[in-house]
Amino acid sequence: MSFKEKGLLVVLSGPSGVGKGTVCKALRTRGTRLKYSISATTRKPREGEVNGVHYFFKTREQFQQMIEQGKLLEWAEYVGNCYGTPVDYVRESIEAGDDVILEIEVQGALQVKRKFPEALFIFLAPPDLEELKHRIVGRGTESADLIESRMMVAKSEMELMQNYNYVVENDQVEKACDRIEAIVLAEHCRVDRLIEKYTVMKGNDET
Ligand SMILES: Nc1nc2c(ncn2[C@@H]2O[C@H](COP(=O)(O)OP(=O)(O)O)[C@@H](O)[C@H]2O)c(=O)[nH]1
Ligand SMILES: Nc1ncnc2c1ncn2[C@@H]1O[C@H](COP(=O)(O)OP(=O)(O)O)[C@@H](O)[C@H]1O
Asked: Where do the TM regions start and end (predicted)?
């Protein structure tokens, strides 16, 4: 008998503006074998964002209903808006043996850690806080007030990086992608070795 390998849940987290979205997009372009969960949010769509592609855009009432109906694996309020991960997509993909990546903020990542301790937690870190601010300003999607709020949150989020399995510096997008791919591959090898070990043990038991 052999054990069926489930997919990995990869949680990529880190402060706003560090480059989570950019790195995930680059991983997709490379064709890295990961499925991307689409979050629900009460934030208004930015220009060019499409419902069901970038986010599922919800009203506060609809979001509250999702929480009450247990439809979210985790959720968090972040700079005045709610964000959450629909649970069904994650569970079904993992059961089917597919790896899933969540690109979420730090509070949500801590909730996933309580529910899915076996997930792989990767903290994406900026080279320094000056560069982080530079990236948020450069993106041009936030007002001055919101930039300051996001920087305040970022500083407290940086203190939580010790809760993660890995810290990946996003100095250059392609290098960050290489590091993430290597971490996922190493985790698969580790799980493969464990499966092999337990399959042999079980075989010995049965003889
Ligand atoms: N907890 C949680 N955070 C999320 C989720 N989806 C997105 N986020 C995070 O919410 C924060 C704000 O997202 P957004 O408004 O799209 O801004 P941006 O990611 O900084 O461009 C980011 O740190 C996202 O990673 C989710 O489903 N759950
Ligand atoms: N390694 C990098 N070097 C320079 N700029 C980057 C890097 N990664 C991302 N950026 C830029 O930083 C800004 C924020 O990136 P984004 O992916 O939106 O961050 P997040 O999803 O973490 O909020 C974008 O303008 C993006 O082009």
From this structure: none
